[in-house]
Amino acid sequence: xxLTYQNPVYTYLKSPDQAATEAVHHPLVVVGAGPVGMAAAxxxxxRGIEVLVLDEDNTVSVGSRAVCYxxxxxxxxxxxxxxxxxIEKGVTWKLGKIFFRDELVNQFDLQPGEGHKLPAxxxxxxxxxxxxxxxxxxALDNLEVRWKNRVVAVENGADKVRLTVETPDxxxxxxxxxxxxxxxxxxxxxxxxxxxxxGQWFHDRFLIADVVMKAGFPPERWFSFDPSYHRGYSSLLHxxxxxxxxxxxxxxxDADPEVxxxxxxxxxxxxxxxxxxxxxxxxxxxxxxxxxxxMERFRHGRTLFVGDAAHQVSPFGARGANSGIQDTDNxxxxxxxxxxxxxxxxxLDTYSxxxxxxxxxxxxxxxxxxxxxxxxxxxxxTFRDAVLELSRSLPFxxxxxxxxxxxxxxFLVDSELNSGDDExxxxxxxxxxVMADAPVAGSAGESWLLETAGxxxxxxxxxxxxxxxxxTLLQQLRLLSRGRISLESIVVAExxxxxxxxxxxxxxxxxxxxxxxxxxxxxxxxxDQHVCARWRRFELSAVSAALARATCTVRGGTFDAExxx
Length: 565
Prior knowledge:
With 565 residues, the protein is an alpha+beta fold. Among the domains are: 16-91 and 122-197 and 293-368, 3-Layer(bba) Sandwich (FAD/NAD(P)-binding domain); 441-563, Glutaredoxin.
């Protein structure tokens, strides 16, 4: 029982599908109502796909699991209509501090600049996030959730997937065009299909203790190496809502999990860390170990794996739920085009290709963090401690300190969906990058650039004076918006309004700065807000070819005419 939280219990209802004599067919089924599965389902429903969610439980996650959500995940959740209540409830932070033997040796600011709608990170217990997502799912008419529906068999056919589902009223069978497996690290669907997830276990144990206390610690991430209260090991302190604090203690591989999580053993560790005079209550504790692994491919026919079902990383760096939410952001726009017949199925293979690369990057960073935090040899520990010692005064050493490289967005620079880059354009917004936000002003009340992207492709054209754009150029920009594949042309300008086109004003000059833009510069953005091409000047043929490449609709090196009116 939690001191600060009472989990909801959702009602199991018998479905009409259970009385059918034949398997009822659904366009899309998502298995797993964790954060990643629910994000996938909400995204699908918002794109007009009828979606069914099956979950074997009837409540949110019990225990304090994921707690830290990055700016990129929040940007995706904002598009899904979920970020605002999360931010209002959560603890916003951007400053991290690293201590060595009780002395501050390094600190970092994850969002030093201005002009961002969303914070660098928030801390929020996973059960609060899941409640937010459930409420959002319930508000969507084309999304159905079935609680206490456990998938016990899967047949992955060439043209449909067949599922056997166990319920309190007995089993039933249904089928779907596409199946998204978001059923966690031990994915039963992966097992039903005879698939593997390969990687390595890390031989160390950690104690998580969530305590309730009123303390004067700031909302920062504090990571300590070899502190006086926990010699030879590391610890972590994070603030959460409702005066709950996450404490994390490294224990070593030889620690007995059952012994270490007994209150009589946990409480002395917490008192030693917080001080004898600090009043607190223990809300929840657990001992965990972890592994880094992934499936070889995330697409298997008509079954698509996301989140922990596809890949796992260590908890250092908050890469689990954050990367899983980015999986769904990559997948759903592609699945929508395929389901609508506007793109071939091989577009879904690029979901696997791109997110496998992202998973490998996460696993690499996660493994490096783990190796630094838990040295495996005396030589490694000597190196680690020397780096920390030098960090007190030398900037080069601070760059080597690794207490968990925090979750960031994968740049898909090697994606086959990218088109050639214009090397004259400076800055980080290269093809494959996620677009940077910037304050803008528009006639429809827009105040942030990311609010204008996300449902379809967008072409942004920068202009000094939008009212003076050439008529031929305007006609070509309008022409791009008439194809089967959704694309909107938007002018970003210092002043003026483009006739017949949505116009945004670069309110503080940050679009020009962050995109290296000058009059004529244009960017083609994917529905998941990744840059797929950029040019110093607009050419209809180049944009059309880039759109075809980004949707796998190229035929003989030219744009598929069926996608244009």
